[in-house]
């Protein structure tokens, strides 16, 4: 075993598929007990990075240590210390939630009693006690994803890989999954979470790496990333054009240093960059009411992933995407690392079929 204080340490990882460079000289460090976000649009290389780090795919270049073990030289050891929740669930629909967890425990060589005890602990931890004896077929999307998370935690992994854990979930279910991920951190697990949602990375991650066509183009805390990108903007739509100028003066009170309020007369909208979104919103709403400025709509808007991309790269997230009518992944068998982890989903590289989140 090589010693390292990092849960994940990757240096110069590279993976090519023909002319496509799926991952290009990718470096990453993840500290124990933290969440590292990996943010990028379809085809950015997120799943490729996760598959290499979870030993399912061999890189063409570079090296990576996960839980202190080299993914290429010692994949078995790595697998003992990781959990993986892929883009597709690995659950048995025909049996109950509790039974699923017991089956996973047995797969990991726990005896019957220990498997049952671990299942109960995890049901409790992921708030599934009430649903434990119902068939998974009856579970909501959020419950399934939580059960998936529980299954990946059977052996209390040092590093957990979550590949787009909230894709396709409604806002309530996303919140449930976020809560579940937060609860993992208490146990010291390091999480590498891929997402196409800026707000998800913002809510969960201690640090966020942004991927663009296989290249890492930023790696920072969500706050610093957003600050660098201009951050939150307050938007006010006034009922009458005559109120535009007074509203502009109110917004000037909360505009962040160096920023400038803007007017869109046609939409009767004024906007301004702000530092503290809640303080700005409450202050503007109060002062407008006091001054008799009739507001039709008010809100604070966070930058979308598209805006992040535009600022970082000068091009839109979807510009130059491959033609969706041509198969993006012609070679699903390219898997020389083998698939020793029974918690691995059927195909974590399967396309999610989801677009970048727009507000
Ligand atoms: N087995 C494969 N054969 C050929 N090309 C592949 C293969 N796997 C991935 N690619 C290509 O590598 C690039 C990165 O794909 P990857 O699946 O890592 O992206 P992603 O960021 O996970 O995207 P998504 O958000 O759609 O899941 C894409 O251009 C993809 O088409
Ligand atoms: Mg993917």
Automatic annotation (TrEMBL):
Q: What is its EC number?
A: 7.6.2.2
Recorded GO MF terms? ABC-type xenobiotic transporter activity; ATP binding; ATP hydrolysis activity
Record InterPro entries: AAA+_ATPase, ABC_transporter-like_ATP-bd, ABC_transporter-like_CS, ABC_transporter_ATP-binding, DrrA, DrrA1/2-like_C, P-loop_NTPase
Q: What membrane topology does this protein have? A: Peripheral membrane protein
Q: Where in the cell is it found?
A: Cell membrane
Q: Which UniProt keywords apply?
A: Antibiotic resistance, ATP-binding, Cell membrane, Membrane, Nucleotide-binding, Translocase, Transport
Locate the ABC transporter domain: which residues?
8-238
Q: What is its main location?
A: membrane
Looking at the record, which segments are called Disordered?
Answer: 315-359
UniProt superkingdom: Bacteria
SUPFAM superfamilies per UniProt: P-loop containing nucleoside triphosphate hydrolases
Q: Which GO terms describe its cellular component?
A: plasma membrane
Q: Which GO terms describe its biological process?
A: daunorubicin transport; doxorubicin transport; response to antibiotic
Q: Which PROSITE patterns match?
A: ABC_TRANSPORTER_1, ABC_TRANSPORTER_2
Q: Which family does it belong to?
A: Belongs to the ABC transporter superfamily. Drug exporter-1 (DrugE1) (TC 3.A.1.105) family.
Q: Which PANTHER family match?
A: ABC TRANSPORTER ATP-BINDING PROTEIN, DOXORUBICIN RESISTANCE ATP-BINDING PROTEIN DRRA
Protein name per Swiss-Prot or TrEMBL: ABC-type xenobiotic transporter
